[in-house]
Write a structure and sequence with these properties.
By secondary structure, this protein is mainly α. Helix content is 57%, strand content 10%.
Length: 263
């Protein structure tokens, strides 16, 4: 080796050594950048409103009393534990049976429940297919025939034999940018939304049934009260009619009472 070749080789070696740190540093920065990349920002739960009560002014813990049936003093207990079947506190077997029948046959509630189960299955499927490896196993068996002519031989009988193949495949999704994790989080969030929608449908249905039942009971009680008042006014008109026959009252009194009963 001459002197010129020696210096050229030394210069080339020095140049490659000087470039290696830059190359490795750039590769390291790329890897760090890839690990920091993610599809979409991290979810941050919104802050709860800074209020401690539902109303602007404190609500009285006692209801107004009235000199009538059911008008006794009633108080609220905010610390009381409300059961899931809160309507059972009314202690009405008829109301319990009505709500039980509605929960069993309501199409809206059934649809919300089916939507929730579908969302949960989708979340489980996304979690399993995107974050876990998939393993496949295959097997096959065939009969093969090799003729000697295919190897350049002019003589010999064809050789028939069995060929068995087995294969194992393992696939794993390298979630470099976080797209798979975001997809799983989205599916889980959709399942949570469906769960809240089911709870909303459940509460709306039971509350509407209880409200309607109480309103119907109030109307029935009002109708019965008006019917009793009418019967009393009618009986009083009969009494005044008899008094008119014996001359103790005038016809004006009878007409006034009949008009009052008819109203």
């Amino acid at each position: 080796m001459d002197v010129k070749s020696h210096f050229d080789s030394q210069s080339s070696l020095h140049h490659s050594i000087s470039l290696n740190p830059l190359k490795y540093g750039f590769s390291l920065l790329v890897c760090l950048g890839l690990t920091a990349c993610a599809v979409g920002p991290d979810f941050k739960k919104p802050d709860a409103p800074k209020v401690g009560v539902y109303t602007e002014k404190p609500v009285s813990s006692e209801l107004a009393t009235a000199p009538s049936i059911g008008g006794t003093k009633q108080t609220f207990d905010p610390a009381a534990d409300i059961p899931a079947e809160w309507w059972s506190l009314y202690r009405s077997p008829e109301l319990d049976a009505l709500i039980k029948q509605a929960l069993k046959r309501n199409p809206t509630l059934a649809s919300a429940d089916a939507t929730l189960r579908a969302a949960q299955e989708n979340a489980n499927a996304a979690f399993g297919s995107l974050l876990f490896p998939s393993i496949g196993l295959g097997a096959s068996a065939t009969r093969q025939q090799i003729t000697p002519s295919s190897f350049g031989l002019s003589s010999g009988n064809p050789n028939i034999f069995n060929l068995y193949n087995t294969s194992v495949s393992v696939n794993y999704n390298l979630d470099v940018f976080g797209g798979a994790r975001r997809a799983v989080q989205s599916a889980q969030a959709q399942a949570e939304i469906s769960g809240f929608q089911l709870e909303s449908a459940y509460l709306s249905l039971t509350a509407n049934i209880v409200t309607t039942a109480i309103r119907e009971a109030a109307l029935r009680a009002q109708y019965q009260s008006n019917l009793e008042i009418y019967e009393a006014q009618k009986n009083l008109a009969d009494i005044i009619r008899k008094q008119l026959e014996i001359g103790t009252v005038s016809r004006v009194d009878l007409t006034s009472q009949v008009s009052l009963a008819a109203s």
